[in-house]
What does this fold into?
Amino acid sequence: MGRHRLVPYLLIAPSLLFLLLLFFVPLIQTIALAFQTGSGIGLGNFDQMAGDLDFVTAIKDTFGLVIVVVPLQLALALGMAMMLRKVRFGRDLVLWIWTIPLGISDLAAGLAWLSILTERGYLNTVLFHLRLIPRPESWLTYETPTALFFAIVIAELWRATAIVFVILVAGVQLVPAEYEEAASVFGATAWQRFRRVTLPLLRPSIQTALILRTVLAFEIFAVVLAIGGTNFPVLISQAFIWQNQNQVYGVAAAYAVLIMAITLAATLFYLLALRPRAGEPA
Amino acid sequence: MQAVRPLLSMLGGVAILASLSATVPAGAKDLTFLSTQLRPMEEAQRTRTEILKGSPVPVDFVPEEPPQLVIHVQADMKSGSPSISLIGALHGELAPLVPLGALSPLDSMDDMLKQAGVPAGMVTLAHLGTDHLQYVPWMQATYIMAASKQALQYLPAGAKLDSLTYDQLGQWAANAEKALGRRVLGFPAGPTGLMNRFFQGYLLPSFTGGVVTTFISPDAEKMWADFKSIWQHVNPNSTNYNFMQEPLLSGDVLIAWDHVARLQDAFRKHPDDFVAFPAPSGPKGLSFMPVLVGLAIPKSAPDSSGAKQVIDYLMQPVTQITTLRVSSFYPVVKAPIPGDLDPGLKAEMAAVQAQQNAPDAHPALLPVGLGSHSGEFDRIFTDTYQRIVLRGQDIHKVLQLEGRQMQHVLDEANAPCWLPDPPSQGTCQVR
It folds into this structure.
């Protein structure tokens, strides 16, 4: 009997050990590194981080992207999941095509969009041949910050909407059709059914999708690096620069700790904001 | 079983040792040549089979990682039977060996260097701030300018490619922009571009005569103001360029500055379309950054006369050209350019020689003695450029601010001045 009680713990032990060694230990080390200065323990690295030329820009850019990209992705993914419900013929094919970006590395996706949007890229070639522009335009330079921002937004929408979509599709499949049928019997319009029935039932999936997507959006890096280079500093790219180019590991660790604090706060926010209200099923 | 395991691994170790000693040929007394350059496996192999083939003394060429060099040489000196007779390394890698008393003076080779036509500035460098020649300049790389021949028609009146000034470069770029409707001057200011070296080795010392000591000075303020006005004619994609050969080949950029190895493809693929030429001059002459590799003999060398023979051999024009073919490092001696040389190398070689032999040329070194702080030192230049040129901040205030940062980095590294700044007692000071 006692033996059987141990089995579950033995089974999860490898994964626990794995996380402990490869996640928890580096995490503690990073936090320790962030608070270590030449003269002992202190906030010196955070001071230096706040004094970094690109710190404020990186904060603005990162939050700007999250605020624009995540709601758009949620709306798009919801729309796609709803549309997919009505598809009878070739549903799997549509699902398959919509999730292709999931299988592409983010750097590859960034480079693909770079080849479209760069000065001699596909977009300019098409516009030029349609005689819409007299000569190739630069969209991705420090002189065109708005175009650069939207280029990254478009690339991120293309690349990472699929993960939200997949989570929502799984959620939609769990919603029993009877609720909606009952609602239409009582004369609810399509919008009312979506707003009052489907959306509340999808709340757990939406919560998961939002947490996952927001955390990942705060950690956006490869797409930005490919498309924006140093013209569009974000928090992770600053951590990378301090680690690799400036080789000041303490400041890189301070950035890492800051990003962790932000993502933890975002997760907590979603957990609280989307928790089931009294009387609702969890 | 547990007791058996250490025994087994010991046996394995013995077997490895035995097999190692078996591979060392009878000529185990070959002269040991430790080098931080020509390290990639293929280059190292070609160094043995091509460059060192005709050496008067059999040589055992041993590549070593740069951070290990000092440790390796020190350990060798302290061992009872030192083996290293010759060291090949960058100027900045040899510098820390001097205060350790590890290098044997090579003043007897002075005449050979003069006859071979090694530039006097380089020989001065090789003294590493002492009264004696500490190493023999062996080979070099550097940064030069490249232009598409299409751009030559826009050169300002009276300007010559071989003796361009920064004013003329700006005028040239302005003319080209006016005629073509786009900005065709380019710099490698991307994430992995070498723009820092442009400020440290070219622009700043050409305007101020120094790098650190003159970082905050009226001359430096004028330089940044001038460069800011040149920047109006610079392709805005420059902050994405890492290797200038790419935009040159695509035609986005017609005039560029970069490291020779990062321009080579343009000359190699279209030798007839591009010209290579020296960097421009400023009010304080033509400052350029040599990436200088030297040959040094440790004091503990078991065969220093053999090492001198190998140095003599490596300095011969023929060997220097072979070295160029193997490594893309350019000769430091006067060497005739052979007709069958790769067109990419040939075009650049003429510009490299013209640059170092220009009457107003003076070398500015890669930072020396900063150790792990070199990344921070480079960042000061990137930030200064970002603030002044891209964000339009007040030049005087930015230089004050970044100058304080620079002093902080120098203090932490405890680094004395290096060329072109005058030698310092103790840590180099931003004035």
